[in-house]
Specification:
The protein is mainly alpha-helical. It has ten helices and six strands; from the N terminus they run E-E-E-H-E-H-H-E-E-H-H-H-H-H-H-H. 31% of the residues are buried.
C-alpha cells in the first residue's frame, strides 16, 4: 500500500498522493472508482458496477467496458506512482485501501466513537468527536460524478450527515451551548424546514436564552407549514416540547 495515498468522497471525488491530486478522468472511470470506494472494502460485483455506470441499462459489451475502465484507472494510478489498489476477484473487484486514508471510513469511525462516548456519559467529548466527523465533509458527496444510482447513494449519505449533526447538536445543548447554536439552527431550519428535530433544537436553544416567545413562534411556523403543505400536525414529541415551554419546564434534551 502506497504511503500518502488518500481517497475522498465527502465532496468532489478526490484521490491524492503525497498532497498532489491524482486526476481520474472520464465519466465511466469516475463512476467505477466511486462505486468501488462506496463499497468500503467489500467486493463490488460486475452487475453492481454496471448499475453504477449505466443506471440499470448496461450495453451488451458492459463486461468488456468495465474491464477497460478498471485498466484505465490502474494506469492512471501507476503513472502517478500509486500502487494498484484494485483487486480482481471472481465476482468482480475490490478496492484495498487503508481506512484511515479514506474520508468516509474515518467519518463512520468517528461517529461510532462519538456515540460510544455519549453512552459513557460525556456529552462534551461526544460533541467534539462528532464535530470532527462532520468537519470531513467538503460539500455534496461525489459532486460532479453523475448517475441515478450515485444520486440515491448520495441521498443516503446526506441523510446520515444530517442525523449525525442532529445528534451533535443534542449533546451541545446538553452542555449549555445555546447562544452559540442559535444562528446555525436558524440556517438549518431554513434549509430543512420539515425536520422536526431541528425545530425542537431551535426551540430549546431559544428558550434557554430567555427567548420563549421566539421559541413558541418557531413551533407555530412549523405547525402552519405542515398543515398548509402536508395537511398534518407536528409529531407528539414536538407537541410535548411546546407544552413544556408553555409551562416553563426545564428542557434539556430533545433526542
Amino acid at each position: 500500500m502506497t504511503a500518502g495515498a488518500e481517497y475522498r468522497v465527502l465532496g468532489p471525488l478526490e484521490v491524492r498522493l503525497d498532497g498532489q491530486t491524482v486526476q481520474v478522468s472520464g465519466a465511466r472511470q469516475q463512476r467505477i472508482l466511486a462505486a468501488l470506494l462506496l463499497a468500503e472494502g467489500r467486493v463490488t460485483t460486475r452487475d453492481q458496477l454496471a448499475e453504477a455506470v449505466w443506471d440499470g441499462e448496461p450495453p451488451t459489451t458492459a463486461k468488456h467496458q468495465l474491464h477497460n475502465g478498471v485498466a484505465r484507472i490502474r494506469k492512471t494510478f501507476t503513472v502517478a506512482g500509486l500502487a494498484d489498489p484494485i483487486e480482481t476477484v471472481p465476482a468482480g473487484y475490490r478496492l484495498r485501501i487503508d481506512p484511515a486514508a479514506y474520508d468516509l471510513a474515518v467519518f463512520h469511525e468517528l461517529v461510532a466513537d462519538g456515540r460510544r462516548t455519549a453512552v459513557g456519559g460525556n456529552p462534551s467529548a461526544a460533541a467534539s468527536t462528532l464535530r470532527r466527523a462532520l468537519g470531513l465533509w467538503r460539500g455534496v458527496p461525489l459532486a460532479g460524478v453523475a448517475g441515478r444510482w450515485l444520486e440515491r447513494v448520495v441521498t443516503r449519505l446526506v441523510e446520515q450527515r444530517l442525523a449525525v449533526l442532529e445528534e451533535c447538536i443534542d449533546h451541545e445543548l446538553a452542555i449549555g451551548r445555546y447562544r452559540q447554536l442559535i444562528a446555525d439552527l436558524d440556517e438549518l431550519v431554513t434549509k430543512y424546514p420539515f425536520r422536526e428535530r431541528l425545530v425542537a433544537q431551535q426551540m430549546v436553544a431559544l428558550h434557554r436564552c430567555g427567548r420563549r416567545a421566539e421559541a413558541l413562534g418557531a413551533y407555530g411556523r412549523l405547525a402552519a407549514r405542515l398543515r398548509e403543505e402536508l395537511g398534518i400536525d407536528p409529531g407528539p414529541d414536538l407537541q410535548r416540547l411546546r407544552v413544556a415551554l408553555l409551562r416553563d419546564d426545564a428542557v434539556w434534551a430533545v433526542g
